[in-house]
Amino acid sequence: xxxTEKTIFDNAARSAGSLRERLQRAVNENATGLRVQHPWDDPxxxxxxxxxxxxxARNEALGVAAQRADDEIQSTDSALGALTDTLSRARQLAxxxxxxxxxxxxxxxxxxxxxxxxxxxxxxxxxxxxxRYVFSGFQDDTPAFDENGVYQGDAGVRQVEAFNGVMQTVxxxxxxxxxxxxxxxxxxxxxxALETAxxxxxxxxxxxxxxxxxxxxxxxxxxxxxxxxxxxxxxxATVTARENVDNExxxxxxxxxxxxxxxxxxxxxxxxxxxxxxxxxxxxxxLSLLDKLR
Amino acid sequence: MGDLxxxxxxxxxxxxxxxxxxATASHNIQNANTPGFARQRAELTAVTPGDDIGHGQVGRGxxxxxxxxxxxxxxxxxxxxxxxxxxxxxxxxxxxxxxTTLDPNAENGLAANLGKLYATMRQLSQNPGDRGLRQAVIxxxxxxxLAFNQADASITTAKRGAEAKLVDVLGDANRxxxxxxxxxxxxxxxxxxxxxxxxxxxRQKNMDKLGELTGAYAVSSGNNVISMMLxxxxxxxxEFSGAVLTAVGNATTGNLDVMVxxxxxxxxxxxxxxxxxxSVGGLLDARDLGLEAARNELDQLAFDFTNAFNAxxxxxxxxxxxxxxxxxxxxxxxxxxxxxxxVDAGVAANVDHVAASSTAAGAPGDGINLLALIAxxxxxxxxxxxxxxxxxxxxxxxxxxxxQARARNDQDTTALESLKDLREGISGVSIDEELVNLTKxxxxxxxxxxxxxxxxxxxxxxxxxx
Lengths: 294, 466
Hints:
- The complex is a heterodimer of chains A (294) and B (466).
- Chain A is mostly helical.
- Chain A has seven helices and four strands.
- Helix content of chain A is 69%, strand content 4%.
- In chain A, strand 1 and strand 2 (132-133) form a beta hairpin.
- Chain A starts with a helix and ends in an 8-residue tail after the last helix.
- With 466 residues, chain B is of the alpha+beta class.
- Chain B contains eleven helices and eleven strands.
- Chain B starts with a helix and ends with a helix.
- In chain B, 46% of the residues are buried.
- The interface between A and B is large, with 62 and 66 residues.
């Protein structure tokens, strides 16, 4: 093929331009760490990248949700623990005052303590996490019980998405926990009855509360077990979500990020190729009859 | 006349021939870098017949026969199409690559904002009555709004940019067509007496340009006259007159249509994009196939997502116990949905309107409707895929079209450069070669001068005879 000076210069310009573009791409890849910045860089992986990014966001949110739900469950469990202590104390007082060796004045004094325990129980059942009353069902802007022990919440039980599409119950209704809704013991009513019996020096009445208080303690224990199971599930959900986030990040990285060694190699090769092309071009420019004819 | 005076006369003529050869080499060197220039050759020939002096013929020197050009019509006929293909894919790739709002990893892109919307709803599901979290959901909805709006705006900007370029390109094409027509006339006139080489170079340059701009190809009309036709068969140059291309706004589509007034015609007609290759075809295809397709898919996604999300939201109850409210502004049809996508003004103005509850009685803590909204992330839209999959498909489709244009441009560049190299190999000026030719002419010129000097000396000798 006949080669003219213009061919030499054009080819030099073309190859230098092409190699500079390649070098720029390599520099860009090294600087950003991304192999796929635009959809046209590798259309085949674009849709999976979008899917993995959404899955990452979903799992991050699931992890946060599970963690917060677990925090709330811990607060609820603490309240149930304190209620168990309260009921145990009430049972202890009932056992003590059921003894005939105590008189009416002793029982009247003890009634005051039982009243205090009742008020404490109301306070614990009105536990708040953030701005929410956790035992009020869906009416969580309202205290679960009024001062007389009347339930003010509703029959709602909150659920959160623990795993992808899998719901987990994360709240207990106050009326189920304390006043016998759905068939459980009404230990809050029992506390009120105990106070009444103490005030009235009604030994039989006091004795009648003992079994009910036992049932109440057992009921609280059962509910704490439920919370424990939910907490375990949420812990697993938190860990799973974290692992999923890591997996999704790894997937995104694998699809869209540049391999650092490969990028560095590409950059070095591009630099070398450009240097070689420029050197070769410069040498070919020197070879002209113009320099020989004088 | 084999006498000494004849030698002097022939020497003068030969000097003129070598001077022409020298001038041709000089002209070639001076145009070594002129685009479209084809090297020229001074063809010298011995003057015939020689003088018959009885015992044979004595030669009469040299004369300039013709100045020709080195051209390969096979290669040159392929070049306008190669220019057209290259310009077509380049225009498509450059136009489509201007849109970066669909980047899959963009921090504020559609995917990121869609993820944020569902993430904030999951946070709200922890505490559906929390007004701060409700505000976060609305803000995420507004973020998604911005992403949809920006994606639409960037597509619109790219379309308008393509159309602005289209207007310029059509102007350039009209000038090239008019130039070719005028050069046809000049070449035809010039051909009567000699070979109008430089005019043919100028015409070839304009043919290349017109091919690059429109994809028009050359058709010989005979007598050294060239006509140019669009791939769809419409003539852009018909011998001595050129067509006029104009961009006219289409009130229905809002786009610019390309109209042509064929050579010699008074009426204009619409030319669809498939009639073009070159920059015009590339710009029209980028607009109508790449950008418009992406916009339509985005519009459909925005429309379907709005409907699906609103259908669930309207069934739920806000903190105030009211239902039937939209979260995103309802859109009448898919056309323009990405641009119109927005959070409903009522919800945006009052966080209590976020319908998280499934019943009025369940407010504020009943997040059951919110859970249904969260589950919409996995619900199939009418297109058969959920919102995330559909978004991925839209972005991948766009990337595929832009990627194909870029890949095609790489191939077209290689093909074009190869043809240009071949043409340069045949028609290009080699300075080394021309320097040799120049030196050769110079030496011949000097030799003829020596002949003249010798003849003159011989004449002087004769004239000194007594």
